[in-house]
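Cross-posted from the bioinformatics board.
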Amino acid sequence: MKTLFDKIWDAHVVKTIPGGREVIYIDRHFIHEVTSPQAFAGLKKRNISIYRKDKVIATADHNVPTKNQHLPIKDPLSKLQVDTLTQNCLENDITYFGLGHEKNGIVHVIGPELGITKPGMTIVCGDSHTSTHGAFGSIAFGIGTSEVEMVMASQCLILNKPKKMRITVNGQLSKGVSSKDIVLYIISKLTVNGATGYFVEYAGSTIKSLSMEERMTICNMSIEMGARGGLIAPDETTFNYIKGKEYAPKGEKFDEAVAYWKTLASDVDAVFDHEYAFDASDISPMITYGTNPGQGIKINDFIPEKANTKSLTYMGLENKQSLIGKKIQHVFIGSCTNSRIEDFRIVANFIKGKRKADHISALIVPGSKQVENQVKKEGLDKILEEAGFELREPGCSACLAMNEDKISKGEYCVSTSNRNFEGRQGPGSRTLLASPLTAAAAAVYGEIVDVREYI
Amino acid sequence: MEKISRIKSSAVPIHIENIDTDQIIPARFLKSTTKDGFGENLFYDWRYDNNENAIGDFVLNNNLYNGKILIAGNNFGCGSSREHAAWALYDYGFRVVVSSFFADIFKSNALNNGILPITVSPKQLDVIFKKIENNSRQTFEVILEDQLFIADDLRINFEIDAYKKDCLLNGLDDIDYLMNSMDEIKEFENKQVIF
Ligand code: SF4
């Protein structure tokens, strides 16, 4: 009678505290340069050392430049934050994949690709999109800096158990529709706080048919509807993805692990606090028109009549307007939502033999050094270059504009990232969230198009 | 963490709703790699003009008002989850914030940093603001043990999670609690099967 979430949660309860909170054991802790310095400093002040340093993995991703990573970082603030992380990892003997390291990359891209992220685990990071790792059937969520410190000190957190929601998607996706469209569709239905207080399990035949990369895209955006996290029951797709990865169990150990992982599914009679069901055939390529990820429409629909005026004014758009034919200036393909090798294969496959429109700047930023190397190995870099795309080195880049990759005031960017908040990609920037395929098509035609007409 | 049990103090009123964490501590002050010193920049853009001169109207610049208690309008601490907002309030000297609603993340950040958020009804909040309006030196008393907020005849019973109350009363935070649970944590680890 247990849900997948219950099974993992219950297996990690160290004890229950009077009043109902529980001490939850954390199996894996990822850290990065922006939300960890105060946690390290806090521990030092209390004279506490890192309890299980072998369970901590560090990377530099948020603040880093995506050009000339072999040179010293120019921006003094970024440099200080990255240097502080480097120093802290050195002092505390923590595995650190720093800038230029062959395993460096966005924290939510490297965990899975190295086989660090596994089913049944509890995983945290001082970053809200930690929900990405839930694609492997793990409980993964973002935490604040005090909590980073708690996990460093004790490998535990004191939490109230969230409520459980299941979102089922059944049926076959139509041509040109990707997992990014599924999640944008779901968020447009549930709104940005439709899942507040819940942990979401995604289920159904459509979800089962997705690759691990596609599943990660969906779990990644769970928090954009307010959920603490999202997860998907592990299956053969998951096991095959993990097999052979550097940090994956090997040989007999792997078989034992799989036997356990196979038990990680919601029981048939498990009860959820809330359920939604959607039909894959109703999902089209999606795009957002507003300033939160819930303000999305099917690409050939019109902006709703009652859409929020403040958002529309900021975006320079109007009610009942169609976005088809809307001229844009930038395309950003990257971020922890869509910067994996599969995303770039889709993009390269579409733009092969085509060229970006002259007025477009098209930035393509791999999620990790491994992805970057794979892009080159497969010769995708040539295709991208010939099409006029600029391939960068890995990092968060224009997703949050903490480095110099920014969109100018008033300009439009079709972006494969996860947030279209005011100023997210730079002060005054206007972000339209979409799938890699829709973004690639926008780059080629210089405006928003329904990609289904071109494939 | 410092203990909180009884606090008797005058209060600082900010009669504004939906104060977000960007106002409490603007993003440009997040560059620090420590938790200290944020108090200087608390409400910076409300406290100082473009030439860094104190804005006389703003309550933090008004000698009439001071104390360890901040009284704020509905939905305090919304927006970005930055914990720096709680650090700034604490560093400035606040130990209690009273409002009719707190944003979730701010509330837990406050509790994790030795600040007691007290939720009162909108009506009660009005009465509190009135009292300060009539007398800027009005004293308030917080008795955490009894979950009481008192100003003369006004006695408000407030809610708080039993565990968090215990933490504040004993000056303990989650880390202290966890450090005292290390034996149980180790016991858990010994039983856990890891793949
Ligand atoms: S890519 Fe964007 S959303 Fe993802 S971790 Fe980096 S900043 Fe956050």
